Amino acid sequence: MPPDRRGPRERILATACTLFYRQGIHATGVEQLAEVAGVSKRTLYKLFGSKDDLVAAYLTWMSEHAPTNEQYLRRTDLAPGERLLALFGRPSSAVAVRGCSIHNAAVEITDPRHPGSAVIHAHKEGFLRQLVDTAAQAGAGDPETLGHQLFVLFEGATALGTSIGELASYDYARPIAHALVSEALPASPEL
């Protein structure tokens, strides 16, 4: 195996992304993070300040880069109505095993002063805004309502999929999403 040529900050963040997602934030200790990343705890604290700050950096990275169905809202090769419906396709099993990293962190982080709380809130608000904006682009009569409805439906499907460890929740959510989108949009080839 070739040596890892990434710097210590990148190795720590990559390790955090793997371990926090797989094991959970509270179950992953700083000692394990440092050992797996191949750095000392001193280096970890020098680069991130605290485990809480590392959690916030992890959540920021996941918010921007995690391969989730949310990425469909940014696809320019799909019409807006198609992007809304694409959210409800079955995600890859690798992603669905543990669900949304941001949602999982929200369950674990209960202190609103934790630096990760602001990242979680910003991500979920941003996702909701993307839904509303995409609904408006698709021509929804009430994009705000459609965006909120799809937000609740998507979050529910994702959380349930994580809770029961299967992807059937997306199969049940998809026809509901289709009905909501069809009802909200004028008849057009956008769907």
What does this structure look like?
With 191 residues, the chain is mainly α. The protein is built from 10 helices and no strands. The chain has helices at residues 8-23, 30-37, 41-48, 51-65, 80-86, 93-96, 101-108, 115-137, 143-164, 168-184. Helix 8 (115-137) crosses helix 9 (143-164). The protein is elongated and about 60 Å long. The model has no long low-confidence stretch (mean pLDDT 91).
Give a nutshell description of this structure.
The chain is mainly alpha-helical and about 190 residues long.
**SSE class:** mainly alpha
The total strand number stands at: 0
The outline comes out as elongated
Uncertain parts:
none
- Estimate percent helicity: 55-70%
Radius of gyration: 19 Å
Task: Describe the largest sheet.
Answer: none
Tell me, rounded to a whole number, the average pLDDT.
91
Instruction: Give the termini distance in whole angstroms.
Output: 48 Å
Order of helices and strands: HHHHHHHHHH
What's the total helix number? 10
- Provide the β-strand percentage band: under 5%
Relevant terms:
191 residues
Q: How does the SSE layout of this entry go?
A:
Layout (H helix, E strand, L loop, with lengths): L7 H16 L6 H8 L3 H8 L2 H15 L14 H7 L6 H4 L4 H8 L6 H23 L5 H22 L3 H17 L7
